[in-house]
Design brief:
The structure holds 2 protein chains of 2 kinds.
Chain A lengths: L35 H11 L10 H9 L2 H29 L6 H28 L4 H9 L1 H27 L2 E5 L2 E5 L1 H22 L1 H12 L4 H29 L5 H9 L1 H22 L10 H17 L17 H5 L36
Antiparallel strand pairs in A: 1-2
Helix pairs in contact in A: 1-4, 1-9, 3-4, 3-5, 3-6, 3-8, 4-9, 6-7, 7-9, 7-10, 7-11, 8-9, 11-12
Chain B lengths: L4 E5 L3 E5 L6 H7 L18 E5 L2 E3 L11 E2 L4 E3 L3 E4 L2
Parallel strand pairs in B: 1-7
Antiparallel strand pairs in B: 1-2, 3-5, 3-7, 4-6
Classes of the chains: A mainly alpha, B mainly beta.
């Protein structure tokens, strides 16, 4: 089934599944199968920000005063986040847009990926301020073995789905030989790859960012690298919203509110989904070990950071129907929360009180009491 | 006189909550119980709480998926007496 940029088959988007139905033709939002995705779009747009709005110039002075082990922690985290957002800035578009079947989800995927590209640009903004030439930092992302290990796990589910979707869209179902290798393509197998991919993205948004978020906010607790912390708060707010969307997709499948075959697959691959999540948690703990190998920083060490990963993982896994696998039920880093509250986010210095752009807002609420003072 | 509802948290704390005085999460915090939250805006799902008995009403429409038997205290108030697990 080849992809068409304007599918001329007459279809009712209200009856289409989220993925692998008829490709979207008219981008219409007057009727919606899963209205939550448009609400996510509106929320994401209200969160709009640009890295250049945040002044990071003081961070350069702060950075010089950090110890070597702290510099290692700070820069390594930025490299890891750059990797995550490099993947997320393109992959939802490339992997999911060719197979999406409802307009509100299609637009959400585009909005989501776009916001990740803002994150990528903000890492350059931060690094350009710290180093006259940040090339060394960026170049290391591809060759650093600790980052490579994570990159492999993050991208493989996407790559697998993209490759098989291409085979399916050019050859249809059946066996196909590419470069001497035989591939068996069925729609059912493709849907399984989609399920695993969404679970892998969900784990990424759910836990993979939080080790570096914790380090950033631990610096901010000491009044260090505050420009960077402001940017990371905005990123954390966005990531929480993205997470909400992958949780929605997984739950809609599990509860049979969408494609009935995806519900079967969700049950069939439950253990695989669990495995994806648990291995993301393990990798994050190893990342914490790598960060602190030359020494810890004030307010944080490897042990407490691993406890925080477990705390977050419990919360995130329950949201998609797993039992909490870890004993860590209380928050070992309670100060983290104040950086994660969406309303506390400060955009520009003159906008300390507001967190989102509400452009052209007009209060249309008028009650009879408002007219009480008028007489004819 | 304002209506208050009886809210049992984690089987050990009993709160009297006036729905006009703020969210369920704020009531949990005011009682000094360890609270779990991130966004406080209904989209991240970090405050997810098991609703054992009773009904809540949402003052802001949540964007997070609410699984049957759960509620998001950051954006709801009690609509009846409640028994909840917030751990």
């Amino acid at each position: 089934m080849s992809y068409s940029t304007f599918n001329q088959t007459v279809s009712n988007p209200l009856l289409e599944p989220m993925f692998f139905g008829n490709s979207v033709n008219v981008a219409r939002y007057d009727q919606q199968k899963h209205a939550v995705f448009e609400k996510l779009i509106e929320k994401q747009l209200s969160f709009f920000w640009r890295p250049e709005e945040i002044d990071v110039s003081r961070d350069r002075v702060d950075f010089q005063s950090l110890t070597d082990s702290e510099k290692h922690i700070f820069i390594s985290n930025l490299k890891y986040q750059t990797l995550l957002d490099s993947v997320q800035g393109r992959s939802p578009n490339i992997a999911l847009l060719p197979i999406v079947s409802i307009p509100e989800l299609e637009t959400w995927i585009e909005t989501w990926s776009f916001s990740e590209t803002i994150h990528s640009r903000s890492y350059t903004h931060i690094l350009r301020n710290l180093f006259t030439d940040p090339s060394e930092v960026f170049e290391d992302i591809v060759i650093n073995t600790e980052i490579q290990k994570r990159a492999t796990d993050i991208s493989r589910y996407y790559d697998d789905l993209i490759f098989y979707t291409q085979l399916w869209q050019t050859h249809g179902e059946g066996d196909v030989e590419v470069l001497g290798e035989k591939h068996s393509v069925t729609l059912r197998e493709l849907k399984k790859k989609l399920f695993l991919c969404i679970n892998s993205v969900n784990a990424l948004e759910a836990v993979r960012f939080y080790v570096s978020f914790a380090c950033t906010f631990a610096f901010a607790e000491r009044d260090l690298m505050e420009g960077n912390s402001k940017i990371i708060r905005l990123i954390a707010r966005d990531e929480n919203l993205h997470l909400s969307s992958t949780q929605q997709i997984i739950n809609l499948w599990q509860y049979g509110h969408d494609d009935p075959e995806m519900r079967e697959i969700a049950e069939e691959l439950r253990e695989d989904a669990l495995e994806i999540f648990m291995s993301a948690v393990e990798q994050e703990k190893k990342w914490a070990h790598y960060l602190f190998q030359h020494g810890s920083m004030i307010g944080l060490n490897e042990e407490i950071l691993c406890q925080y990963v477990e705390y977050i993982a419990n919360m995130r896994m329950q949201a998609i129907g797993f039992d909490a696998p870890f004993k860590q039920r209380s928050n070992p880093l309670p100060w983290m929360n104040k950086y994660l509250v969406s309303d506390n986010v400060q955009v520009a210095p003159q906008e300390a009180e507001i967190s989102s752009y509400l452009v052209g807002q007009i209060d249309n609420e008028v009650s009879a009491a408002d007219l009480g003072g008028f007489e004819l | 006189m304002a209506t208050t509802f009886k809210v049992i948290v984690n089987g050990q704390h009993q709160l009297a909550v006036d729905p006009s005085q703020g969210t369920l999460l704020e009531a949990i915090e005011a009682a000094g119980i360890e609270s779990h939250f991130h966004c406080r805006n209904g989209f991240c799902g970090a405050c997810r709480t098991v609703l054992l008995e009773g009904q809540v009403s949402y003052i802001n429409e949540p964007l997070a998926f609410i699984r049957p038997g759960d509620c998001l205290p950051c954006c709801c108030v009690p609509a009846s007496d409640l028994n909840i697990e917030h751990r």
